[in-house]
């Protein structure tokens, strides 16, 4: 989970990947930072299941959203927040354009269910869309600074407006009451205990801080491993270089230079980031990972059925303690589960990720989500 993991940490007899069934998914956010995370309850199952399971994934709910990076003016004690015209027209209720100074009251819910009231106006010369009354209390409460971003979304359910926050300063530690080695021991120990006792264990997944997806759809892994990867093979991979909700990932190409274990002592014959690669891009893009997993890439010239994964990168991000696993001997199902379609899927959990190193972020647990 860090750049230099302690090689003396045992693997507790775990294989490099574990076949699991998703029992429950809770989507949450830290109250002090609004950083999102998912609590995923998994049930280990050592038997492989034939047939496709990807059809159980729910379709992505269509919604209009946009991301606004806040300027110094947006976060000052005076004035409001200036919003781009095209984004506002798509995501907000329409304003009466015939008036010289059109305005409307907007109520937006944050990730914790709290409602925030804003006055949306269209005024000035040239005219601009602004959030005025109510904006200052919001920025003060959330302690927003220039460079932070707000995400506005409309179109879910009854058409309510939602507002989220993404900060330029990432949280440094997920848990402050345990040190890194203790946490890594706990990750492996509880996963091993869950496998031996056929009980649930919980993964806390942070999409903006993880190295690569450590939970991957079962079919995606199995289909990718049917390809005979070898040095000299060329490939493409989707890379998300931004955090705009509607940003389209870029496609980068490269060549496989070698195939070997990332941690041969503790995780021999692991497919986790087992491919060393050389990218076709210039040295300015050194943030691209030097190692990839087979299911993250699409070989060129081959008809491979598995869907490409997408990784996210940011030059200014650093790895943090991003994964905690807690033993949970009791099944837990949420009636209002927003990821209900995942519960019937069989997934693989990469345990060798605990000893990996990276400077990149993760894709979501499932590409469609």
What does this structure look like?
This protein has 369 residues and is mostly beta strands. The protein is 11% helix and 31% strand. The protein contains four helices and 19 strands. The protein has helices spanning 85-91, 135-142, 180-197, 218-224; strands at residues 17-29, 36-44, 64-69, 81-83, 102-109, 115-123, 128-131, 149-156, 160-166, 200-205, 215-217, 234-240, 250-259, 275-279, 291-292, 298-299, 310-312, 323-328, 346-350. The strands form three sheets. A seven-stranded mixed sheet has the order 3-8-9-5-6-7-4. Strand 8 (149-156) and strand 9 (160-166) form a beta hairpin.
Principal-axes geometry comes out as: elongated
Straight-line N-to-C gap: 24 Å
Nearest-integer average pLDDT: 75
Q: Note the main sheet.
A: 7 strands, mixed
Structure summary, number of beta strands: 19
Question: What share of residues is helical?
Answer: 10-25%
Number of helices: 4
Per DSSP, what share of the residues sits in E-state strands of 2 or more residues? Answer: 25-35%
Query: Helix-strand pattern, N to C?
Result: EEEEHEEEHEEHEEHEEEEEEEE
Structural class: mainly beta
> How are the strands ordered across the major sheet?
3-8-9-5-6-7-4
Report Rg.
22 Å
* Regions with little confidence, pLDDT below 50 for 5+ residues: 173-178, 314-344, 354-369
């Amino acid at each position: 989970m860090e750049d230099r993991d302690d090689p003396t940490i045992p693997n507790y007899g775990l294989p490099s990947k574990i076949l699991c069934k998703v029992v429950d998914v809770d989507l949450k956010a830290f109250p002090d930072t609004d950083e999102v995370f998912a609590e995923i309850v998994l049930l280990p199952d050592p038997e492989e299941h034939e047939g496709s399971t990807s059809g159980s994934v729910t379709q992505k709910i269509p919604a209009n959203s946009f991301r606004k990076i806040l300027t110094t003016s947006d976060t000052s004690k005076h004035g409001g927040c200036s919003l781009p015209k095209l984004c506002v027209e798509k995501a907000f209720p329409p304003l009466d354009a015939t008036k010289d100074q059109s305005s409307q009251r907007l109520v937006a819910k944050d990730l914790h269910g709290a409602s925030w009231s804003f006055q949306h106006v269209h005024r000035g010369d040239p005219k601009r869309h602004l959030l005025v009354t109510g904006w200052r209390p919001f920025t003060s409460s959330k302690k927003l600074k220039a460079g932070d971003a707000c995400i506005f979304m409309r179109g879910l359910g009854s058409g309510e407006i939602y507002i989220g926050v993404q900060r330029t300063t990432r949280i440094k530690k997920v848990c402050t009451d345990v040190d890194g080695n203790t946490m890594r021991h706990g990750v492996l120990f509880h996963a091993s205990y869950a496998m031996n006792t056929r009980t649930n264990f919980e993964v806390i997944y942070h999409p903006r801080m993880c190295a690569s997806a450590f939970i991957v759809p079962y079919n995606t892994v199995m289909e990718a491993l049917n390809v005979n990867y070898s040095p000299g093979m060329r490939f493409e991979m989707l890379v998300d270089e931004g955090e705009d909700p509607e940003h389209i990932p870029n496609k980068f190409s490269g060549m496989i230079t070698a195939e070997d274990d990332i941690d041969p002592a503790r995780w021999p014959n692991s497919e986790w980031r087992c491919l060393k690669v050389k990218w076709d891009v210039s040295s300015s893009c050194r943030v691209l990972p030097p190692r990839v997993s087979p299911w993250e890439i699409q070989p060129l010239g081959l008809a491979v059925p598995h869907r490409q994964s997408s990784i996210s990168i940011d030059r200014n991000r650093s790895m943090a303690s991003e994964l905690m696993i807690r033993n949970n001997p009791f099944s837990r199902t949420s009636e209002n589960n927003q990821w209900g379609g995942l519960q019937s899927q069989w997934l693989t959990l990469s345990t060798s990720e605990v000893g990996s190193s990276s400077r990149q972020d993760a894709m979501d647990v499932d590409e469609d989500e």
